[in-house]
Structure formats: C-alpha cells, structure tokens
Amino acid sequence: SEVPTYGINTGFGKLSDVSINKKDLSKLQENLIKSHACGVGDAFNEETVRGMLLLRINALIKGYSGIRLEVIEKMVGFLNKDAIPVVYSKGSLGASGDLAPLSHMALPLIGLGEIQVKGKVYSAQEGLKIADIKPIKALSAKEGLSLINGTQAMTAVGVLALLEAETLLELSKFNLAITLEA
After folding, report:
1. Alpha-carbon dihedral sign for residues 15, 101, 105, 110
2. How far apart are CA 34 and CA 31, in angstroms?
3. pLDDT: which is higher, 16 or 107
4. Residue 6 is inside which H or E element, if any?
5. In the list 31, 57, 78, 104, which could disulfide-bond 87, CB 3.0-4.6 Å?
6. Which 3 state secondary structure label does DSSP give 39?
7. What would the pLDDT profile of 107-164 be if each residue is shown by its tens digit?
8. Smallest Cα–Cα separation from 152: which of 51, 29, 42?
9. Which residues participate in catalysis according to the annotation?
C-alpha cells in the first residue's frame, strides 16, 4: 500500500515522515548504503569481516528484518568463495549500530566498493568477476536498512578479542608454572 511505513517507503531518521515514490524504493535502499559507507582508517582483517558476514547472516535468517533469501544466499556465497568485502575500521556509531562498517560490507553485494579475493584487493566489479559472483541487480524495500542495521562489526571484533584473551590466559598459566619451577 501507499501507507507511509518506516524503512519501506519513507526516508530515514529525521526524514521518516517523507514519503518515497514507489518507483524510487530500490534507489532509496542503495543510497542508504552508499551514504553510510564513510569509514576510514585501516581495513579490518579478513577474519573480522568474515565474522561480520557470518553474524549478519545469522541475524537475518531469523526472518525479522524484511530481506529476500537471495540476498542472504549471496552473502553465504561471499563466504564460500572467499570474497571478502573491504571494511574500514573507523567510523562506527557503536551502540547506535555499526552503520559505516556494515555499509562497506554490503556495498559489494550490489557491485560497489572494494573486495578482497585470494588476498588481493579489487574494485567490487572486478573482484566479483574473479570470484564468479554476480551482484544483486537491485535491493527491494527495506533491504538496505536490513543489511546495515546491526552491531555485527563490534560483535566480531569483541568475539575475536575474547578468543585471543583466552589464548593469552592459557599462555600466562604456562609462563607462571615455568617461572615457579625456575
């Protein structure tokens, strides 16, 4: 229907009361991702971005976010073909959502941004060809918002930090034992 519904046929934030024409809904979702892809600094390592993809897929498959199966399958394809989006490490809003990092993660799904394939960084279009992945032609209503509205960047960083801390704890126990023995 034409009833204004946030994230589907309205603007976002302060523009939530502005209706968007039905023919512009796909462009609205694409523009949302492009406008929030403003991260800077060093890129996250491959392990972190793979974690982000996996965590975002896990959140989306629960069915509460209004996203097509095709988009989720494309994300799984990125993981399976080791095609890792380039995601910059600075620019997140933290508790308000990892809008900038998740936007950089989402850009290659629509053929934009950068992607790492076999350890080398390419434009998304070139990298997707190498990985034999076709970008999504157009996002449907709410899909851009579904892709970037989450905290998967900080969660991936936190989980990896926890795993490293557990390893360091084990190593410190061995160091203590060796020190006491000496």
Report:
1. positive
2. 5
3. 107
4. none
5. 104
6. coil
7. 999 999 999 999 999 999 999 999 999 999 999 989 999 999 999 999 999 999 999 9
8. 51
9. 6
Matching residue, tokens 């960084």: 121
The angle that helices 99-106 and 25-36 make with each other, rounded to 10 degrees, is: 120
In degrees and rounded to multiples of 5, residue 119 shows phi and psi of 80, 0
Tell me the two tokens of residue 151.
């905290």
Contact 109, 74 (CB under 8 A): yes
Q: Say how far apart CA 140 and CA 119 lie, in whole Å.
A: 32
The Cα–Cα gap between 5 and 182 comes to: 69
- Token pair in block for residue 9: 């046929």
- What is the rounded CA–CA span in Å between residue 157 and residue 153? 6
Residue holding tokens 């034999």?
A: 132
Contact 78, 113 (CB under 8 A): no
For 40, the token pair is 């800077």
Judged by phi (left if over 0) then psi (alpha if -120 to 50, else beta), residue 107 lies in alpha
For the record, the structure tokens of 161 come out as: 């930090």
Q: Side chain identity at 137, as an amino acid letter?
A: K
Q: What is the pTM of this model?
A: 0.90
